[in-house]
Amino acid sequence: MARKKIEGPGAVNVNPFKLDALEVERLRVQLAKRANQRLVRLERRKASTGEKLSEFGAAQYAYNQIKQIRHVESTKSGKLRFRESPVKDVTSARRELFALQSFLNQETSKAGVAARYVSQTEETFKKAGISAAGYKSFYNFLNSTAFSNLAEYLTSDDIVELYNKAYEKGKLSHKEIQRLMAEYLAEQEKAGEAVDMKSLAQKLNVGAITGRGKNTEWNNYVQARNKAREKAAKAKAKKSKSKRKTAARKK
Q: How far is CA 1 from CA 4, 89, 183, 190, in A?
């Protein structure tokens, strides 16, 4: 009896451990081809800053996963790709399948979405006075393990604000700021200490964010950020409505 091919949304949500070895391998190859096509599109397209979309978030995640797999395949030009060739070890195949699903489940793995995300995020942060915006290192930080780990204890807004304060001082590079944040998390965990704004600010050698009242720098930042987000959301809704009208007329 022929096996049913797993396609559509289910392909990136199915649990690899509920599939047998043959099903895992078939799905892995299927998703590897899809993922590699997305990587090609990300490499060909540029953000409004002029940098390739492959230098940001989802693509960087994919490249890191490919390197960890070790059995790396690359094109003649040296571009990293998920392997589409057979994988005999089912454990390795399942691990690769998880990586593929994680990449494909990220909306920014799609070139069009990634381009809009970078443009809108840059505009939002710049309007909010975040000078670190516009640099790929900053966007990669937003998609990094260090950021997601910090976000378990602090709000993303606070993390970004401290990051920007450290960047504006001009003494630390993006890479150094991210290293210090990751180092801070490890130190707090080892010492059994809580993660908080004050101690993180001390680690970065910047002033902590304490103001939450009216007319504070923080309040101005939040207001500017929210206005930018609202504007972007309205523009997106307007565009979506226009598309629906066009589709309805074609029918």
A: 9, 24, 54, 55
Sequence-distant (6+) residues with CB within 8 A of 242 are: none
Cα angle 195, 199, 205 (rounded to 5 degrees) comes to 140
Tally the residues of the chain: 251
Q: Is the pLDDT of residue 48 over 80?
A: no
Q: Which two tokens stand for residue 222?
A: 């939040």
- Is there a contact between 171 and 133 (Cβ–Cβ < 8 Å)? no
CA distances from 99 to 15, 81, 106, 151, 181 (A): 12, 12, 11, 22, 25
CA angle 203-207-212, nearest 5°?
A: 125
* SS3 of residue 80 by DSSP: strand
Alpha-carbon separation of residue 177 from 58, 181, 192, 195, 222 (angstroms): 21, 6, 22, 16, 22
Per-residue pLDDT at 251 exceeds 90: no
**What residues does each domain of the chain span?**
14-113, 144-212
The mean pLDDT value of the chain amounts to 80
With contact defined as beta carbons under 8 Å apart, do 38 and 109 qualify? yes
Three-state SS at 52:
strand
Within 8 A by CB and 6+ apart from 162, the residues are 197, 200, 201, 204, 206, 208, 209
Neighbouring-strand partners of residue 52: 46
Neighbours of 92 (CB within 10 A): 14
More confident residue, 223 or 164: 164
Instruction: Please tell me the pTM assigned to this model.
Output: 0.62
Is pLDDT above 50 for 213? no
Mean pLDDT calculated for residue range 20-25: 90
